Every structure is written in C-alpha cells, then in structure tokens.
User: Fold this.
Amino acid sequence: MINKKISKTELIKRVISLEHELNRKPMKRDNISLNYYARKLFGSWNNLMKAAGYEVRFYQKIDSIKFNGNFAYFLGLLITDGHIYYNKDLKCYKVAIYTSYFEEKEMLLKLIKDLFNYNAPITSRMHGFNKRPNYEIRIDSKNLAVTLINDFGIPSGAKSSKVSIPKKIKNGPTQFKRDFLRGIIDGDGSLSKQSIRIYSECARYLLELKDLLSQLNVSTGNVRSSKKGTKVFVISINKHQDLLKIRSIYDAEYCYKRKKEIIDKV
Assistant:
C-alpha cells in the first residue's frame, strides 16, 4: 500500500516506475493503490496520466447501441477473438477485440466507429517467434460492457468453456444470423477450398452453432474432439453446396479479407 502522505510528484514517479516494470503504458487495473490515489489526488486516473506526460484520450460515452447486422458481426468476433473486462472495485470496464493483422485492425476501427461513433484506442504487443504485433482494439465503456453481459449473455473474463450464442441472434432475422456467422468464422474458422472448420473448448456452443447453420440450410459434421487427448472440439463444413452458401455471406462491407480470399476460391 502506498504511504497515505504521498505527494502528487511522488505518485507521478510511481507511475513512471511502473511503466518500466511493465514495459508498457500503465493502466489503472495494474495497481489498485495507484488508481486509488490517482482519484484522491488528481480526481481521476486519466488526470494522473496526463500529469505524468502520457497521451490521454478524453472520455467517450456510448449511449445507444443499435442491434443491426454489423453489430451481429461484431458479436461473432467478440465471442471468438474478444474479451470483456468488468471490475466494479476498480471501476474498470473494457470490451476488446484482438488481431495480429494490420488490415484487420483498420477494419475493426472503422466497424467500431460505425457502430458506436467511438474512436477506439489500440495497444500493440509483439509476440511469437516472428515477433508479429498483436493489436488490442478496446472500447472503455461500462454501458457497452453491461449490455453485452446482461442483454446478450456474453460472459466477462475467461469465456472459452462457457460461451453460448446470444438468444437475440438465435431468435433474430436470418440476415443477422448470417452476419454473426461471418464474425464467428473470421474469429475461429479455419478455411480452405475444400472445408471450413470451427473450433471451441465448449462442445455445447458448437452444438448451438450447428443448429444455427442448419437454420441457414448449411449442413455440418458432428461435433467431435479435434485431437485425441485435447479439450478442443470442432465442427466441419465439407459439402461443396454448403461452402458456396458460406461464400455468399462474405458479400459484405465488414469481413476479414484473408478469409474472404480463401472462400472466394470455392
């Protein structure tokens, strides 16, 4: 715990020291004490960061969320390649989507701006042997996080083993199901000219997805273990006529172009 008599100058030094430890810009969730004294001495975490010389984005508020086809696509991406961070104690709320491709990062920024009129900040980290950047495109909005959790049933925190398809997608228009499916395939789909495979740690979710595909007149194989001894499951789309149906859902403004280029070859 930081000394209660800490000065503003000392608090700024602590933030800079934390940056050196983390090798990145500190966030309020990184240190509870720093966040507490930031609010006590500076009024907010962002005010402390600004005083410490960091670039600070002014607060952007998301008041209304329109459930449309592009939002359905966003949900598909969030379920597969996203994360909801929700912490009441730290007053920290974040919705994030991840990608390692520059062109996809740019598309996601445009999608989020289109959906929420929100300029999403980006954090980039290098990972893997080839040091490919991993982009985190985030939306710092309590309202959006709460809506996604309560209205669409997307869990916060680790979700890979307990995810499910939102009821508003299951009961929604056919076009929304198509857009949602495109998001799922972009996030978790493995594509070739001969097949599409979708992976998950949650077999129940893949059964729901199999039913959703059936509603779109797309047949799949049974849900099965992707590899003996693992806890990852897979469903496959193999028939040529079904692959053509999937190809048709990629005639859209928002999609991962590298996935579209593969499915266009069917």
